[in-house]
Design brief:
Layout: H1 3-20, H2 27-40, E1 42-46, H3 50-54, E2 57-58, E3 61-62, H4 72-76, H5 80-87, H6 97-108, E4 112-118, H7 135-139, H8 143-153, E5 157-163, H9 196-210, E6 219-223, H10 231-235, H11 237-247, E7 252-253, E8 302-306, H12 323-335, E9 339-344, H13 354-370, E10 388-394, E11 400-406, E12 414-417, E13 425-428, E14 434-435, E15 437-440, E16 443-447, E17 458-463
Parallel strand pairs: 1-4, 1-9, 4-5, 5-6, 6-7, 8-9
Antiparallel strand pairs: 2-3, 10-11, 11-17, 12-16, 13-14, 13-17, 15-16
Helix pairs in contact: 6-8, 6-13
The chain binds ligand H79.
Length: 464
């Protein structure tokens, strides 16, 4: 290679790196770290803690029919003692609850599980030395260990959700943020003055244990920050992420220790995600309860979503999404190059609501037949067609395979795909049956059977 050519290549690599890498991490290493996650496409989220036993009910009355009941302490304005007294007697994990979760995730076709090691209420599922508001002290169990082991036994990757917001710790200075929630917001600290740096010592101690005591951790899913309280000021985020990376070099973290435009947050709304991310702020961005309209080319992203409207279990929330919605969401997300992190909210005993089991199994049944069109695929090369969605894979030898996910079966039996190709070979993914495909200029036309084999989504593999 001549000098000018290599100089151009180096300059190009540096530009790419400036866009994608954290200081010091080569793009290649970052890509390697992200590889399993990018191929996984589908994960199971679990919100489970003291709030689960309360089930959306406080003093015998429903707190609401919808919305996040993992926020029940904040919704009723309870101090941590009142909340703990009501919730602890109702939090009674069965011996084998974690095996049930792991089996369900596996059956659904999930490749990873992310679960709450601590939510905003501050209760730790681990057996931690750093607090006595934990499963170790209250139940003489390490629930984090039980969950990690159950997931590993099913061959699943494991991630830790961890709330940096804390409604329990007596040094957490909630008055520093007007935007972050706290049950006692606007009220003086019950214990006089507080020293947030003491809370941070606790946070670092607890996170240090989480990344040291359970073997490899695949994901750290931070939650969350506000524009008026975030990053280094609120959480010593640079140091916190450094601590995690030192213990877990391969770990993947989201960007929720920050809430700023540089860190990939364009606005506070559910639709405002900037399409750039320096990995010093995190490895991926996290649209919540929302699928970005056209994906985010060049940025790793994961939509997290509930099956009804709450993350933590509520006996009053019956707004379950249909199988059609869930399966098409997964496809829609894959067609835009993202991951789907779909939440279950187990009950206080760790059992999963029947409706959630049925939904996860329905996705699993579809994935068993069509998983090839989801795992390790890339975003669609074309804008979303009226009939459905497209994913794609590069095959060995330079050929390309498109997966056509047909939601709306054409009434005239002709499916048109706006791509140009010299040759086209189409088959039904479910049974390998060939379909007639004709390549014309800028368009391929496929002749379909009269009836759609799968009303939710029929996949056609198209090799071009
Ligand atoms: O852990 C889950 C939520 O508890 C947390 N992140 C996910 C993964 C979360 N943080 N912020 N939000 C959710 C958005 C805020 C939503 C709110 Fe509400 C709507 C706050 C008040 C109304 C939902 C309903 C939460 C409480 C009631």
């Amino acid at each position: 290679m001549n000098i000018s050519k290599s100089a151009i290549l180096i300059a190009a690599a540096m530009t790419a790196c400036a866009m994608l890498c954290s200081a010091g991490e080569p793009k290649e290493q970052h890509d390697q770290r992200m590889e399993w996650w990018r191929e996984a496409r589908f994960g199971m989220f679990v919100h489970w803690g003291l709030y689960s036993g309360l089930a959306g009910t406080w003093n015998g009355k429903p707190v609401g029919k919808s919305g996040g009941m993992e926020w029940i302490q904040q919704r009723v304005g309870a101090d941590t003692e009142t909340y703990a007294n009501a919730a602890i007697p109702l939090f009674k994990p069965s011996p084998d609850f974690a095996k049930g979760w792991a089996k369900l995730a596996k059956e659904a076709g999930c490749r990873y599980v992310v679960f709450t090691t601590k939510h905003h209420d501050g209760f730790c599922l681990a057996d931690t030395k750093t607090s006595d508001y934990d499963a170790g002290s209250v139940l003489h169990r390490d629930l984090v260990k039980e969950i990690v082991e159950a997931c590993r036994a099913e061959g699943l990757r494991v991630g830790f959700y961890h709330s940096v917001i804390d409604w329990h710790h007596d040094q957490y200075e909630y008055a520093k943020s007007k935007q972050l929630p706290h049950p006692l917001k606007g009220k003086p600290y019950p214990n006089g003055t507080r020293d947030h740096s003491k809370y941070l010592n606790y946070l670092f101690g607890e996170v240090g244990e989480l990344v040291s005591n359970y073997g490899p951790v695949d994901v750290l899913w931070w939650d969350y920050s506000a524009q008026d309280f975030q990053g280094d000021e609120a959480w010593h985020a640079t140091d916190l992420m450094k601590l995690v990376r030192e213990k877990q070099p391969g770990i993947i973290m989201n960007n929720r220790l920050y809430r700023s435009a540089e860190a990939g947050w364009k606005s506070m709304g559910t639709d405002g995600y900037a399409a750039t991310l320096d990995t010093k702020y995190g490895d991926f961005v996290t649209p919540e309860q929302h699928i970005p309209d056209t994906g985010m080319p060049g940025v790793d992203w994961e939509t997290c979503m509930t099956l009804n409207t709450t993350w933590g279990f509520s006996e009053h929330d019956h707004a379950w999404k249909s199988d059609e919605t869930l399966i098409r969401n997964l496809i829609d997300i894959a067609s835009k190059g993202g991951n789907y992190l779909l939440n279950i909210g187990p009950k206080g005993d760790g059992s999963v609501p029947d409706e959630s089991i049925k939904s996860m199994q329905a996705i699993g049944a579809w994935m068993k037949v069509n998983g090839e069109a989801i795992y390790a695929t890339q975003a669609s090369p074309i804008a979303k067609p009226a009939w459905g969605r497209v994913t794609q894979k590069q095959l060995a030898g330079g050929a390309k395979r498109l997966y056509l996910h047909v939601f709306n079966w054409p009434t005239d039996g002709k499916l048109t795909v706006p791509v140009s190709a010299k040759t086209a070979k189409a088959t039904l993914l479910a049974n390998g049956k060939s379909l007639d495909a004709t390549a014309a200029e800028n368009q391929i036309t496929i002749t379909l059977p009269a009836e759609s084999p799968d009303k939710i989504a029929t996949v056609i593999a198209l090799d071009i």
